[in-house]
Amino acid sequence: MKDIVSCIEELRLRLDRHRKEDLKEYPTRTIFIDPLLQALGWDVRDPDEVQLEYPTIDGKSVDYAPKINRKPVLFIEAKPLNDPLTDVKSITQVVGYAANAGVEWCILTNGITYKVYRSTEKAEAPDKLLFEVSIDPRESEGKPVQQIAEQLYRFSREAMAKGVLDEIGEQVFTTGKIRKALDKLFLNPPDNLVRIIRSAIGDKSIKPIQIKSALKRLWSQSSEVELPSLSTERRKDYGEEHHIKGKPREVVELFRMLDKFCRELDPSNVQRKYLAKYVSYMHGKAIFCCVHIQKSGLRIWLKLNYSQLENPPDYVRDVSNIGHWGVGDVEIGIDNLEKLHNSKSFIRQSFEENK
């Protein structure tokens, strides 16, 4: 991990100068992408490990094809340094190349931002985005370099050999599919599900229509509940879609898990309020958690005193003297399920102290 951290720090020193030069694709590869791949354990000089200009079925080529046991496990398509990586044609192209070659994972990068797609996922190409990570300090304000390195490590040679991306992709995409299936089942429950529940209850006095209504009520607790805004934003329509639109699937699932956890702390009294830049959670009138949904993860603010936290990890920091969105003096940067799980105790602490 030290090599990745050192590489990020070195590339950051080069960034401003080369950005002004409007660096084209080939020098972007040489100056930014090649060194990072080397730090991630991929030898770009060895064609048995990383094949450059890997041929595709349409007679074109993909810029990098990292291999394990001489078999491609990842496709990487490079763009110029200042490319925003938002062109749907470019996304569709690299995802199509990978899918046609039987390669599960592919990346679109401008040397600074890396967008990781699961090519075999049944969705439109842009919706196959699992996560993205940027080494640009402006895109990762408040995020430790170590945390950025951990995300980049996911497609290192060592991690690909261990199946790290496969495991993360399975968790995130499967969770999303199950969530959609449960939406259908609980909001419009089929008769056989109602019969199973009625049998499990063991009370024949409860009618099927009552069970259906109860399922809808229980599941709808996770639906949007807007509070009247006291600011000039009251005429704006800020909902979940405003915050999750264009975000990677992993980030969306992290938000939904956080949302569920916060609301289940007290289902009858915890309310959620959408604002322009963040989502806040209140118990009565007291805010205990705010979250800003970024492309690379979540930034959470809690109404706690940092000095009173017990052994906070390095992704938890004191922002009492630092400008930030949201309410609270403790900030947590979350970019994976483990960090979300480990942060629940702090969120619960904030909830308990601000009831």
List the helices and strands and how they pair.
Layout lengths: L1 H19 L4 H15 L10 E6 L5 E8 L2 E2 L1 E5 L9 H14 L3 E5 L3 E6 L10 E6 L10 H9 L3 H6 L1 H24 L3 H11 L6 H12 L20 H5 L4 H16 L5 E5 L4 E5 L2 E8 L4 E5 L13 E3 L11 E5 L2 H17 L2
Parallel strand pairs: 4-5
Antiparallel strand pairs: 1-2, 2-3, 5-6, 6-7, 8-9, 9-10, 10-11, 11-13, 12-13
Helix pairs in contact: 1-2, 1-4, 10-11
Protein name: DUF5655 domain-containing protein
Organism: candidate division WOR-3 bacterium
Briefly say what this structure is.
The protein is an alpha+beta fold and 355 residues long.
* CATH architecture assignment name of the largest domain: Alpha-Beta Complex
Secondary structure category: alpha+beta
Low-confidence stretches: 223-235
* Oligomeric grouping of the chains: single chain
Kindly report the spatial arrangement of strands forming the biggest sheet: 8-9-10-11-13-12
Q: DSSP strand (E) fraction? A: 15-25%
The domain count comes to 2
State the separation between the terminal residues, measured CA to CA: 41 Å
Number of helices: 11
